[in-house]
Sequence to fold (266 residues):
Amino acid sequence: MGLWIGRPGRLHQIRDGATSFERAPDLGVTEFRALSGAVTTWAPPVYPRRLRLTWGSMARPDFEALDRLARRLDGPGPVVVLDPLAGSLLEGEQSLGVGSTASWSVTGGGAVLGGAAGMNALVRAEAGTELSWEHPTWSGWPVCPDLPLTWWAPQLVDKGAQCRLLWRDREGVGRWVSAGPPGIPLVTHAPADAYFATPLVRIESAGIYVVGPAALSVGTAAPPVPAVGDGCPPYSVTGYTHAAVPGAGEYRNVSLDLVEVASGTR
Fold:
């Protein structure tokens, strides 16, 4: 299974495995040395990651899709990369059930509690409360028709909750719901007209619950939980090369450089 790349609603699956896949955070750490020799450091609060992908002898459908993306032939906007080898598409702290309460929302009564760095998030629920995991940029996690997804929140499921996926249209409006059987991960495929997916659980009994670790992954095999989330950020293309393979001009050697950006609109 290759990766999916493109803009929300227009993801293209690259079935050929990349010959090189590099992703590292830009730490931006600066050192200061005092006259005494002591060293102090400063680090920014955000570490955008830079992604570099290279492919050899890529077939025409794939390199044409990347060419359109790099040249912005379909207009400006964020680029999505869905890696099936990622442990989870949730954000790092969110995947562990800790951090800011902005990572979750509730409907049907109740509230998300906690929010301090490194501390467990809690949900005060009424019977029938739905707890949703929130994407920091879009109305949900970008998907494309028939994309396989697995959603699993074991700590809440062990307390009787049910895993669900809410599928949203282009405008971010919820249109369809997939519900999983009790006690096991929800494994399903995106509907034909879905642009985004919001993972959630339905809590059947009132009470206060620890949110706990969760995982949203591409594919039909549930990852181990906890799986530290890789996130699903918006990217911008910053570099692109495209060269014909010597002696086989119908194929291309391609490289693509991307960087995480703060907004989903550019």
Remarks:
- The chain is about 10% helix and 45% strand.
- Helices lie at 60-70, 92-96, 154-157.
- The longest strand covers residues 248-260.
- The CA atoms of residues 12 and 19 lie 18 Å apart.
